Amino acid sequence: MLDELITKEELKQQTAYYDDEISRISETIASRQNVAESHKRQLDAIKNYIALVNQTAEMNIDSTKVYGEMLKKVLVHDNCMVDIYLNCMPSGFRIKFHVNRFNQQHRFNVFIDSCEAMPS
Fewest Cβ atoms nearer than 10 Å: which of 10, 48, 58, 110? Predict the structure, then answer.
């Protein structure tokens, strides 16, 4: 403006535009930080829950009763996928697996290929 390349009004418009952009970007950053913090809290809760589940494996009790208290539902799909819903979590987990049979007595190993949280 001092070099008379733009008018005072054009400078005000540019300033308003960039102030709006800074505000919008700041809100986006804050929103994503909130999502990241929420995911961190959920992950910490899952890790804590897994630690508790691992402790139950060492108990000398009927595990079906224990697991029945922890599980909301389990959906087994035909395409080597299982959806697991826990009582403490708002969403479930999808586990993809494959089976390796190794003898005639119908014995087999199940190998987990991936596990991902499903949206709630």
Answer: 58
- In percent, the amount of the chain with pLDDT more than 70 equals 87
Distances (CA, A) of 14 to 7, 17, 22: 11, 5, 12
Contact by Cβ (8 Å): 88, 49: yes
How far apart CA 11 and CA 19 sit, in angstroms, is 12
Contact 69, 84 (CB under 8 A): no
Question: Closest Cα to residue 69, out of 56, 60, 82?
Answer: 56
Confidence at residue 83, expressed as pLDDT on a 0 to 100 scale: 92
**Alpha-carbon distances of 72 from 5, 58, 89, rounded to whole Å:** 68, 22, 9
Segments making up each domain of the chain, as ranges: 1-58, 64-120
| Predicted model pTM | 0.44
- What 3-state class would DSSP assign to 58? coil
- Low-confidence residues in the chain, pLDDT < 50: none
